[in-house]
């Protein structure tokens, strides 16, 4: 794929400085780019790499234009420009082409126009696949599941019965949607399984990373609203609702029946307790532990940053002495109070 800089500028909302007819066909870093390749600069700490780049063009903001030795696409947010150019020059193949002869498709399934189904995929009874859906090799689509237009599932995704996935979604390999939530009742030490009778409803324009698990609701539904981005290896428990535009990074977990607001950002390794509510526009930094409802937007943290081992041991030893120190402080406060009382008399 070859695009002139003017073609790209028109598509991403940038202005061209230099040869507007220069053609590029590939993205690369400032250091590695050469002829026919386009790079970008969005982080000022890499500005020193700009003057020596061999790229045919660079996406930059106006402040960097005078330091650019080559053609430039100028816009206020070069990182957005990079994302849009990456979409233009994307060479990722489809997970499947046409319908493979080894796919097992129930006769009652509804298959739309231009649907692709990979080798050894299983499509059970009552499934509805809308136009342009792409199902990768080895996927399992359970009974009466619905998948909307232009949605893509990579290899070995499991979609359980009655799950609904909207339009323009992307699900990476080995993700499981609609598995049973962690529902059990304890009868004098014996665990009795509670069948999970709800399902999972996923909106439009949702992206889900590899090996993520989204449990079905126990009675109601687990709901992932429009525009949510979920990274790899997440656990979304039963009856969770995630508001539109929220993003979650890898290895974070949300316990059951919690409601996450809109446009939240949840960093990696965050744990969110069950049966709580999180307001819109909250940010949780890495390893935060959310134990109660958050009612105000803002940035929240609780993870302990790493330290040299000897320093950590010293700090931990001090923490273990906090109760003793607290008792001594209270005794000193009481003694001071008594001294002040004596002095006043």
TrEMBL record:
Record key words, sorted: Acyltransferase, Lipid A biosynthesis, Lipid biosynthesis, Lipid metabolism, Repeat, Transferase
Domain UDP-3-O-[3-hydroxymyristoyl] glucosamine N-acyltransferase non-repeat region, chain residue ranges per copy: 22-88
Catalytic activity: a UDP-3-O-[(3R)-3-hydroxyacyl]-alpha-D-glucosamine + a (3R)-hydroxyacyl-[ACP] = a UDP-2-N,3-O-bis[(3R)-3-hydroxyacyl]-alpha-D-glucosamine + holo-[ACP] + H(+)
EC number: 2.3.1.191
Known role: Catalyzes the N-acylation of UDP-3-O-acylglucosamine using 3-hydroxyacyl-ACP as the acyl donor. Is involved in the biosynthesis of lipid A, a phosphorylated glycolipid that anchors the lipopolysaccharide to the outer membrane of the cell.
Family per record: Belongs to the transferase hexapeptide repeat family. LpxD subfamily.
PANTHER family for the chain: UDP-3-O-ACYLGLUCOSAMINE N-ACYLTRANSFERASE, UDP-3-O-ACYLGLUCOSAMINE N-ACYLTRANSFERASE 1, MITOCHONDRIAL-RELATED
Subunit-structure text: Homotrimer.
Name of the protein in question: UDP-3-O-acylglucosamine N-acyltransferase
Species in which this protein is naturally found: Thalassotalea piscium
